[in-house]
């Protein structure tokens, strides 16, 4: 996947979790949990969606790398997605 | 013959609007089947039937507002000796009422599941429902290709790529809930609580380190779909503690405490757009941790998409509110009447803590109890908190 494809995949999953959010206003460095008001169940659903879309394992210890959209793209690219 | 009536889906509910029938006359129903969708202040609720039988007549029409206790349908039960029962059993209501055309119909693009799409309720996967809501498509107007004809994410994606724009979803069940109506329901229940219930409050700080360490070890090496959340541990510890402290599990009714039949923990779920619901996790004390996780995941998804069941709204015997990672350190809850207690778990924070004479960083949570002083005293409340703490210190036993 290209970085753009990963980004779009992540945004699609987030749109399903936070359908009311204004994604046009979401910056690449914004804290996803805070800006989108994600609770731990939402975040687990996000990780599950990324896992299913890319095959990446995403262990819990790596969750901190997924705090921003940029972080998600960089992490999944490095994970071989 | 028995009557299927409008249930009371909240302390202050007087009537409900029947939005949709999920059965038709002649259908066989079993205890626990969802048979109708009723619109309440808490959103659309799927209402179950509590006996086995055959639907003989739908009395209320879709769109009709019916008072609590009003007859919605007549149901022929096993004990009935009406002659009509014979043919009904001989021809078990054709679930797939697709009229088989005599002349060969032109092949539909996706033939098989179309039959499902025409018979009553269309199943839509949660992910498909979310995407459909987001892009403004009515998912129930699509042809499902998923398991048993359900509308899957792929079907919605396909509809989007084809530029499908179905009519705006008309019924309340798809929009979930009306925030203004939910506000009214919360206002009524909470005002009644503060008017009638003499609350007392207790709080303890609990060391979550053992539970979180156990959880991290459990989750390591498991795919995200099998991982659990800390909430599952606090939920199970609460349910087990209620076994020992039954005076917090039940209702204040008719001037006295009535113990709950089973431990049905109400789990407070914040809804996007405001408001909250606290549906029951039935018999939570008897479920394993992975089972509880599955139930919780399903419950949160359905609460947010407006697909809760009547029993989940009616049955909680005590409520737990968990503030989550973005929340505050502690909460002093307001009891949902006629329940007699609400427990609150604050955000988990790392703080200095003394263990064996050493100051060490530990992850802690503030556990609080608001309880009805008519039903219990502070001494008993303190013992409830202490039991929960002990259970969380030995997570492997949960």
Automatic annotation (TrEMBL), chain A:
Q: Which Gene3D superfamilies match?
A: ACP-like (1.10.1200.10)
Q: What sequence ranges are listed for the domain Carrier? A: 1-80
Q: Which domain of life is it from?
A: Bacteria
Q: Matching InterPro entries, A to Z? A: ACP-like_sf, PP-bd_ACP
Protein name, please?
Answer: Phosphopantetheine-binding protein
From TrEMBL, chain B:
Q: Which UniProt keywords apply?
A: Acyltransferase, Lipoyl, Transferase
Point out the coiled-coil segments of this chain.
Answer: none
Q: Which GO terms describe its cellular component?
A: cytoplasm
Cofactor(s) it depends on: (R)-lipoate
- Show the ranges annotated as biased composition (Pro residues): 101-112
Return the EC number. 2.3.1.-
Leader sequence range is none
What are the Low complexity biased-composition ranges?
Answer: 83-100
PROSITE patterns reported in the protein's UniProt record: BIOTINYL_LIPOYL, LIPOYL, PSBD
Domain Peripheral subunit-binding (PSBD): residue ranges: 123-160
InterPro entries in alphabetical order = 2-oxoA_DH_lipoyl-BS (IPR003016), 2-oxoacid_DH_actylTfrase (IPR001078), 2-oxoacid_DH_E2_comp (IPR050743), Biotin_lipoyl (IPR000089), CAT-like_dom_sf (IPR023213), E3-bd_dom_sf (IPR036625), PSBD (IPR004167), Single_hybrid_motif (IPR011053)
Report the CDD domains cross-referenced here.
lipoyl_domain
Q: Which GO terms describe its molecular function?
A: acetyltransferase activity; lipoic acid binding
Instruction: Extract the ranges annotated as region (Disordered).
Output: 80-120
> Does Oxidoreductase count among this protein's keywords?
no
Q: What superkingdom heads the lineage?
A: Bacteria
- Every copy of the Lipoyl-binding domain together lies at 1-76
Q: How does it assemble?
A: Forms a 24-polypeptide structural core with octahedral symmetry.
The text of the family note is:
Belongs to the 2-oxoacid dehydrogenase family.
Output this protein's name. Answer: Dihydrolipoamide acetyltransferase component of pyruvate dehydrogenase complex
The organism is: Novosphingobium malaysiense
